Here is the input.
Amino acid sequence: MTDDKEFTEQSVDGLKRKLISQYVYLMSGILLAYSIVFYFIIKDVFFAGCTLIYSVTMFYTFMVIRKSYNIKILVHLYISYAPLFAGFIMLDFWKFSAATAMWLLPVPLGAHIFLGKKYIYIYTLYILLIIVAVSILTRFFAFDYFILNDVKVMVASDTFVGVSNIAVFGLLLYYNEKIRKVEIEGNILARMGVSEQEKSAVPEEAAIEKDKEVYVNFENTEKYNLLFSEIRDIVEDKGYYKDVGFTISQLSNILKSNNLYISKAIKLNGFSNFSHYLNSCRIENVKKLLQENDISKVTLMYIYTESGFSNQSTFNRVFKQIEGVTPSEYLTNLNLEE
Here is the structure.
């Protein structure tokens, strides 16, 4: 039961449901606060009441359906009617400020996270049509629900709208990144033939950050050996180890994997971490170049920079750590063997 719960929380579906619940809590709080702004600062009882009713209705409805709902249907419904309510508010503010249009900006991002690329264009067009409609309606009709006599009130309202939308964007972007990570993990696991039960053993991101040495334990290490063969193809065969600034994040982007699986694959193949593996490749290339070249005709600097070391002190330290002798001692032994 616990494993199933952990897997649900780690799955894309679980993250999307968690995002929806946190969004509802955040947006309900924002709308409640906005109704207070309407009532006490803007002095508009009508819009204060509308916003309060909208906030309470959204929160109560979600509390009723939160245990069982279809994510896509709920999102389609919300990003269809929420912009209409925002457009209704915009009718009253448009002649003073267009800042209320910021309420519509998170819609394309929400469509991207929950519905896919096609719906980004559909809902972007939808909110543009609402903005155009508001602009046309306010040009021909007067929507004077309140009279604004103080510019400071409008500035306060715009500031509230701006800060609120920054908070909404922050929440959406945070979960978008988490969802994409899980999707990448799922892709690499599918390519490696890892079952859903094995996937559930992957620790949550918080646990990974807390303890970098905690890794998932899969029974079949062949899956990691397959990944390591891909790592070797990139790092060794294609010579990426020669890049001084090459990082595990760059490698994960190339392989469409993530740092956790790459680190595990490297560790299971005899290396303590990515840095140890990368430096081992570099030292092997140094030794190869030393054997192939006459050291009297080429400089040691050429050899270690050609192998991916940025300076001699780092090269000397790493060489001693891996080979157990200094570069000069290794050269002496090499000359004696000849």
Notes: Residues 151-192 form the longest helix (42 residues).
